Amino acid sequence: MLMRTDPFRELDRLAQQLMGPGTWSKPSAMPMDAYREGDEYVVAFDLPGISADAIDIDVERNMLTVKAERRPAAKADDVQMELSERPLGVFSRQIVLADTLDTEHIKADYDAGVLTLRIPIAERAKPRKISVGVGTGRREISG
Q: CA 59, 47, 68, 16 torsion: positive or negative?
């Protein structure tokens, strides 16, 4: 159901971690899981610490794009940062969806830092039985 388009995704993710936070023009990748559950395809993205209104989901034809931004928390003037390991900036992921998915009826839920998209499998892609008719008439071939 999902087609991978970037064989070097892990290498890109490592390079982005070393280069710093993402920007809108060059976002960082976000981790995800994708699996089929019954008649739905489920894609879950890890977005901890991001508010739901900072998440942008777009579908154009069969290209799904998820973007999110994590900004630094407001701190008082007398706070001195000792350690900062949580990544900030813009995160993005693009996925090419198969034609067998119904992109018109995608449902999105965000809970406990996980964005879950449920994409129904299109009716035309579901298995179906085809009945075979039996002809009752006979035909003769004359020559």
A: negative
Intra-chain end-to-end CA distance of the chain, in Å: 53
Q: Any idea which residue has 């003037």 for tokens?
A: 77
Characterise 62 by phi-psi region: left (phi > 0), alpha (psi -120 to 50), beta (else).
alpha
- Kind plus residue range of the DSSP H or E element containing 47: none
Is residue 114 within 8 A of residue 46, CB to CB? The reply is yes
What's the pLDDT tens digit per position in 53-79?
Answer: 999 999 998 899 999 988 877 778 888
Give 5-19 pLDDT, tens digit per residue: 555 666 665 665 565
Q: Is this prediction's pTM over 0.85?
A: no
Label residue 41 exposed, middle or buried (CB < 10 Å: 0-12, 13-18, 19+).
buried
CB atoms inside a 10 Å sphere around CB 20? 11
Q: Are strands 40-46 and 114-120 parallel, antiparallel or unpaired?
A: antiparallel
